[in-house]
Amino acid sequence: MKGCGSIMGFDNGILLAPMGPDVAGPELVAAVANAGGLGLLASPLNNYELTVKAIRETRMLTDKPFGAGVLLHFDNTESIRAIYDEKLACMQVYWGDFPKHMVNEAHEHGVKIMHQIGSLKDAEKAIAAGVDCIIVQGMEAGGHVIGQVSLMALLPRIVDLVKDKDIAVVAAGSIADARGYVAALSLGANGICMGTRFLASKESYVHDYYKQQILNYTEADTDLTDLYLRSIWRAPHRCLNTPFHQQWRDAPNSVQDNEDQPIIGHSIIHEQERALRRFTGYVANPTTRGELDKMVMYAGQGVGLVKEILPAGEIVRELVEGAEAIIKGLADKYLSKPRSSSAP
Predict the structure, then answer these.
(1) CA separation (Å) from 201 to 78, 85, 117, 266, 315?
(2) Distance between CA atoms of 323 and 344, rounded to whole angstroms?
């Protein structure tokens, strides 16, 4: 599906965020890729075999190129090796440095690098490293949020910084429909990266309860917190301000998802059975059983724009066709038409 904002050889500029631990799985990635977008797999944490398995399962569902995301805060050497060996089209890196020698290594394997950042300083590092794409994340975004600046303020700053360099710029944070897509393009972005909107898709690997909750909340109902997953990674993240979260949002720093907390459920994540303690950072997937209302539900401030659960391909199509219609409508409305010359 060709569309406005095409980047890096993909038909359109719509990216699927690599939501973890397994939300952005083979089915969702393939659906986005088949619609002409760029699907990014959530790479299993530092596991060569499981990363290869996820890649190959995705290839069984699409013959289109796709990529994978890697969280740099943790050692992901084995997952990165799998991505290189499988020769994916691109790799998104996030929450850490990925210097020039590492970018060069990726390029030697034919893998393009997309670095997600949340500040001008980090964008400068990414440019110096020679990345192929910078994903600009505003603080409105759902999930883990690396910056403290809104997308509207940060995006044009990064666009100006990139200037005429051969680096694509992608916008991320609270974009959930064609209007947000066009707004990002007008600020100089080449494309958009979405998580929350794709959560509410038929192919996303999350529990139906979570999907339904996405439809029930608005932009006023999210919270930026560090309450979940404190035991291994204390980092800010945006989630739905559910009744459970409201009850615990001001919990002291000593409260974390350790053995002091009760088990509230169980999930199978990357083929392993996991007991989920209160304040776990793992979201409910289709295998989860337990107290779903007490589990974290990540979402960005664009959640109020999500009205229904749709196939991912239809979401991409509506974005592309909607953006083209908006751009045409704006041109018709604001660009003066040449006056017809009248005969003397």
Answers:
(1) 30, 30, 26, 23, 8
(2) 42
Point out which residues pair with 67 in neighbouring strands.
40, 90
Joined tokens for residue 159: 């666009």
**What strands, in cross-sheet order, belong to the sheet with 222-225?**
143-144, 237-240, 222-225
User: What is the rounded distance in angstroms from the CA atom of residue 139 to the CA atom of residue 118?
Assistant: 8
pLDDT tens sequence across 51-75: 999 999 999 999 999 999 999 999 9
Helix, strand, coil fractions of the chain, as percent rounded to 5? 35, 20, 45
Per DSSP (E only), the strands in 110-206 are: 112-117, 133-137, 143-144, 168-172, 191-194
Asked if residues 116 and 98 have their Cβ atoms less than 8 Å apart, the reply is no
Closest to 18 (Cα-Cα) out of 48, 49, 64, 58: 58
Secondary structure (3-state) at 121 = helix
Cα distances (angstroms) measured from residue 47 to each of 1, 137, 327: 33, 27, 44
CA 111, CA 200: separation in Å to the nearest integer? 29
DSSP assignment of 180-234, as one string?
Answer: HHHHHHHTT-SEEEESHHHHTBTTS-S-HHHHHHHTT--GGGEEEE--SSTTT--
With cut-offs at 50, 70 and 90, classify the pLDDT of residue 339: low
Q: Tokens at residue 57, please?
A: 């399962």
Q: Which backbone phi and psi does 131 adopt, to 5 degrees?
A: -65, 165
310-338 confidence digits (pLDDT tens): 999 999 999 999 999 999 999 999 997 66
Instruction: Give this prediction's pTM.
Output: 0.95
